[in-house]
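INSTRUCTION: Work out how this chain folds

Token vocabulary: learned, describes local backbone geometry

RECORD BEGINS BELOW THIS LINE
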Amino acid sequence: MSTTVGPPFEITDRWRMWIVENFLLGAGDQAILDVLVAQGMGPAQAQAEIQAVQKDVYLEGAGWITQRMRKLESTLDALQRMRQLDPGNYGVPRHAGLSRERFLADYYAANRPAILNDVADNWPAVQVWTSDYLKDTVGAEVVEVMTGRDNDEEYEINLDAHRKAICFGDYVDLVARTGPTNDFYLVANNHFLDKPGAAALWADFSCDERFLDPATASERVFFWFGPAGTVTPLHHDVSNILLVQVRGTKRVTLVPALESHLVYNDVGVYSQVNAEFPDAQRHSRFSAATRLTVDLHEREALFIPVGWWHHVRSLEMCISLSFTNFAFPNHFDWSFPNIMR
């Protein structure tokens, strides 16, 4: 049952939407009545509103849509149960020497995650990308970072409010002198590698041509840099991603795309659920979700299939690259919810 409500003590359209929502979610009359009364409505007034909603023909129309959505969800449940008959779907396998053909068949086309251990073996970056090196190479460049994240639970949704321009050398110093924090982070959305001063860094890594297309790398490779404690909340990407760990270790929790109806996706690509400390009362369906947790170490690459939900925490100061320039089709059309509470 949804517990998100509008202003107390007043019957507004928001309250009526809440009543309809909870009817469609299967909450009983008494449960809805109890919440309304607890918020200050008189029992008779609350009962009258419930009855008015029940008689509204628009509720019946919304119910038809709900039935179709529930059929889709039951289909996803059935497909996920079938996938779990394969023991390989219970974890995230690690590979070295995987061929293009096997990667395409077993992971990319199958929408299954995997860790590739040999993508960065010959990268100078894994040796030279220290804080001092990055500062010496790109330190004079003015870059954009996300700041003030600790004061906003929805910092990813509200990312435009957290953009701040800073000299990259000063940002490196900030990371070096700060302990674990999630308050600031240089993320993919900051387009660091598009900066002229970052051009020299491209010589320090390469695109593994078994999986990636070097010719389309421009604007499709992204740089992440931040202290221990940075968190990317549970979300999904709109394309397939190859996340390569250059420095430090990240802990990644994955939820299959087939379980999207369990993650409370109300806005864009974001989940309401705190994947590390889920609220069993507010997000009861998440308890049924499959959660695969892996630690991604230096030199390792995690293939995150399109639509898979993932939560990422940096266990140390971390530098990462993410790639979307696969050698296979990687553009998809999406529809997104925008249910602002």
Notes: The chain is about 25% helix and 20% strand. The CA atoms of residues 72 and 261 lie 9 Å apart.
